[in-house]
Design goal:
Helix content: 40-55%
Strand content: 5-15%
Oligomer: single chain
Shape: elongated
Largest sheet: 5 strands, parallel
Structural class: alpha/beta
Strand order of the largest sheet: 3-5-2-6-9
Length: 383
Amino acid sequence: MAYRFLSSRIVPSSNRLSRRFIFIFTISLCFMYLCYSILFCSGTIMPSQRLEDHRCVHLKNMGSKKLLQKSHYCTISAKARVLSDETRAVGLLNLTGNQSKHSAFQKTQDVVDHKQSNNSNSPKYGNKKLPNALIVGVKKGGTRAVLEFIRIHPDVRALGTEPHFFDRNYDNGLEWYRGLMPRTLDSQITMEKTPSYFVTREAPRRISNMSRETKLIVVVRNPVTRAISDYTQTLSKKPDIPSFEDLAFKNRSQGIVDTSWNAIRIGMYILHLENWLQYFRLSQIHFVSGERLITDPAGELGRVQDFLGLKRIITDKHFYFNRTKGFPCLKKPESSSQPRCLGKSKGRTHVQIDREVIEQLREFYRPFNVKFYEMVGHDFRWD
């Protein structure tokens, strides 16, 4: 009745069509306002995100002149979306209780972690660090065995190959050297082994320049046996080389040994050690017996672990003796169907050398050995 009364006052009765139009137009405006309010309040500014995505797709199809612009714009958009997700989660934290706080934070972390996992530059566990310890020698002494045995310790990460940084590749710089190392956690030790360091005159100074606190491991062996093993390895690669006797002596009848031959010179341990002691304390150098490494690997590795400040985890239960190779091997790990033994080049049969030649070399090495025993405070019983 009120509507008819008002309409009769405002609009003449003869103009009923105009009255109906005004009514329908008013209702339409109200409906449009209601729809717009619902859309705005529900946060449907999402089309702007789709617009950004559309721009990225559109720019990808443009010429090379837009390549840099495309890359920069889309990267910023992606970061903005991650920040938007984090902002929404922070909003949830302010509106909910303790349980909701944890849930919202976890969702935020899931979003960020997912974004990072799709990024090829996402951080990995640990860092590449310069080594804390080095196996510096000696060749054919048992360095590979020590490396393979000690690296099963959970607190040791070791480079498998020999980098030869301090003798051949020093000009590449420390950052190049660091880049070769495996990633380690703060609680882990980084190691590498290059046996030629021990006989390289510049190596002690260079290692000291890297860190004066570096721990050094030297695996030593009866110098006569070591020389024969060295020759056997070379002969397997170069079958046409002269005989062991011809290389070892300048004058066999007079017993004059050729100390310029590397296979002989390496075994003069005291001469090389004196060079190292100019830069490192004797307490920083641990000597492993190559002979006891074969007969008692757990005992030798126990002392290595002590020297490195590690808990004694590697014990007798990790080893068994391979009679075919004449070497200890690591027992089969849970993740493997085979035990771990050293390669075919380890434990090969030595070349037969005349007994008199061996005795002459023992006499030659005896004074060097005695001085070495006195210097390190241990008798290796090679004589």
